[in-house]
Amino acid sequence: MPDAIPVPPADAIHLDAISKRYGRTLALDGVSFAVREQELFALLGPNGAGKTTLLHILSSILRPDSGTALIDGIDVAKNPRAARQRLGIVFQEPSLDDRLTVRENLELHGLVFGVPRKLRRQRIEEMLALVELSDWAAKPVRTLSSGMKRRLEIARALIHDSGILLLDEPTVGLDAQTRDRIWAYLRRLRAERDITVLVTTHYIEEVESCDRVCIIDGGKVLALDTPEALKQAHGQALVRVTPLTEADSAAISAQYADRLTGRQGAELTLVSDDAFIAAFLAEFGTRISALKVEVPSLETVFLSLTGRELRDQAAGAREQTFAFGKRGGEHTR
Ligand SMILES: Nc1ncnc2c1ncn2[C@@H]1O[C@H](COP(=O)(O)OP(=O)(O)OP(=O)(O)O)[C@@H](O)[C@H]1O
Asked: Does ligand 1 have an atom closer than 6 angstroms to the CB of 25?
């Protein structure tokens, strides 16, 4: 008997030529891509790239001007209720009821989505354990730190039959440790519960552990692949050099204007390759105090695709509007 032909994984999300305009701003310009079942898929782009607009279209909050969005094969525009039932959504704006307890928030969500009582109870306990909030179940939400609230929102998104989790910048405004924990939960969820996760972020270092990354900028998809394949196709090596004097800095900048990609304080960043470092050191070796070599990274993938460093924009306007206070090792808004 011939070997069975492997069945290709189905698409959990399928977007075809989605465009959306707000007045003069073309927020999405013919976006097409698919997220396979059980992928941990990142949508990476700077502020204003169109990520939130895309998630709003997938969750049927917004209608696209043109194009088709499918969730588990269901057309979102034609059958929004059925499509939404498959989705667990965590938006940027917190939407928990602060006056209710942790468990009451989950109960309420289960009721709204019509989850039968017994199953609801069981899921609530499971989800509380998953995000390590079981001990907080009876506490009012207002007493939680913002990191804990984010975890609760993730738990809440999974109380109904949501096989696909959409998260819009779930780690924005959180400290590094809390961000790591959120990602650990997402990886665990994907591994233990066969869930598809589509997450948006502008933190480039977060997407290294995703199955695939879609880089979006100015409403267009620039590249989509595994982190390794993106680095191989678009990554560049960089050197960061610190010239001894302003005159040395000016000389290096003039000589290598076509390689210069950034300047932070005294440090210059230049695109490198095998021959470059030897030639550079022969000429400027005595005129610098430091030289650091960076292997191709997703940061340089973004740079070579857009001509800009994403890191420069990481401290976006939205984060600066958060007033931070510390509680239990996690920031609060
Ligand atoms: N309601 C709106 N009215 C007008 N313009 C909008 C509206 N919402 C978004 N935009 C514009 O559309 C573009 C895409 O915005 P969107 O919020 O989707 O980007 P984003 O990648 O999610 O960025 P951010 O992380 O800042 O939310 C931006 O230029 C934004 O200013």
From this structure: yes
Residue 26 CA, ligand 1 centroid: distance in Å = 9
From the CA of 219, how far away is ligand 1's center (Å)? 10
- Ligand 1 centroid to 192 CA: how many Å? 34
Q: In Å, how far are 52, 190, 211, 215, 301 from 225, measured between CA atoms?
A: 21, 19, 8, 9, 11
The ligand 1 atom at the shortest distance from the C-alpha of residue 52 is 22
Which of 47, 200, 215, 321 gets mutated to test ligand 1 (max ligand atoms within 8 A of its CB)? 47
The DSSP element (H or E) to which 155 belongs, if any, is helix 146-157
Atom of ligand 1 nearest to the CA of 53: 18
| DSSP 8-state class, residue 324 | P
Per-residue pLDDT of the chain (333 residues; tens, 9 = 90+): 556 666 555 799 999 999 999 999 999 999 999 999 999 999 999 889 999 999 999 999 999 999 999 999 999 999 999 999 999 999 988 889 999 999 999 999 999 999 999 999 999 999 999 889 999 999 999 999 988 999 999 999 989 878 999 999 988 888 888 888 888 888 888 888 889 999 999 888 889 889 999 999 999 999 999 999 999 998 888 899 999 999 999 999 999 999 998 888 999 999 998 789 999 999 999 999 999 998 888 888 888 888 777 765 544 433 333 333 333 333 333
For atom 5 of ligand 1, the residue with the nearest CA is 22
Boundaries of every domain in the chain = 11-231, 237-295
Please list the residues that pair with 271 across neighbouring strands: 238
Q: Put the strands of the sheet holding 196-201 in their side by side order.
A: 87-90, 164-168, 196-201, 40-44, 212-217, 220-225
Q: Is the dihedral of CA 67, 73, 78, 80 positive or negative?
A: negative
Class of 11-231 in CATH: alpha beta
Q: 189: CA distance to ligand 1 center in Å?
A: 29
